[in-house]
Amino acid sequence: MTAEHAVLDPRTMRDVMGNFCTGVTVITALDGDEPLGFACQSFTSVSLEPPLVSFCPARTSTTWPKIREVGTLAINVLAESQRTLCGAFATSGGNKFRGVRWSPGDNGAPAIDGALARVEATIEAEHDAGDHTIVVARVTGLTTLDPNSPLLFYRGSYGTFENM
Predict the structure, then answer these.
(1) Distance between CA atoms of 71 and 69, rounded to whole angstroms?
(2) 92 contacts 62 by C-beta, under 8 angstroms
(3) Taking the CB of residue 122, how many other CB atoms lie within 10 A of it?
(4) Is this prediction's pTM over 0.85?
(5) InterPro entries this protein is in (predicted)?
(6) How many whole angstroms separate alpha carbon 54 and alpha carbon 73?
(7) Shortest CA distance to 120 belongs to which of 128, 110, 129?
(8) In angstroms, rounded to a whole number, what is the distance separating the alpha carbons of residues 142 and 115?
(9) How far is CA 156 from the centre of its chain?
(10) Which end of the chain has the least Cβ crowding within 10 Å, N or C?
(11) What burial letters (b/e) apply to 9-27, b meaning 16+ CB within 10 Å?
């Protein structure tokens, strides 16, 4: 067996990849009157021209198929003070928006109060990627909202960093 086809232990993969610190987002959309959302740490800028971003929902997500149907969405970049909110959006089922203050963004997707920034986008492409889907979305709007520190995910825990 070559290294290219080696079988790796998922726990080891999670532990090693956990050394890469990421920000935390909540991907949202509005389906009629129903706000939809899920927490997502696998978010990145892809291209400046054209303006593209990417995120990776789990294939087991029950929210992602609903957001896909809507087609327009917002990526809300969470602030360090939004750890509890992140936990609510990381769970499956239930009313994730209970107690969450939000308003419709320019494209109608929920803009979560207190987020650091918001990226509004439309779905451009999807690619199968193991137990996740790689979504590429075209940016239609950008907003910086709050100058506070970001919520970070590192080695399986949430945290922040001190400004130097």
Answers:
(1) 5
(2) yes
(3) 13
(4) yes
(5) Flavin_Rdtase-like_dom, NADH-dep_flavin_reductase, Split_barrel_FMN-bd
(6) 12
(7) 110
(8) 13
(9) 16
(10) C
(11) eeeeeeeeeeeeebbbbbb
State the Cα–Cα distance between residues 117 and 132, nearest whole angstrom: 24
Residue 151 carries which side chain, given as an amino acid letter?
A: L
In the chain the first and final C-alpha atoms are separated, in Å, by 47
Domains of the chain: 23-150 (2.30.110.10)
Give the mean model confidence (pLDDT) for residues 31-51: 95
pLDDT digits (tens, 9 = 90+) for 84-141: 999 999 988 888 999 999 999 999 999 999 999 999 999 999 999 999 999 999 999 9
**HEC sequence for 1-45:** CCHHHCCCCHHHHHHHHCCCCEECEEEEEEECCEEEEEEECCEEE
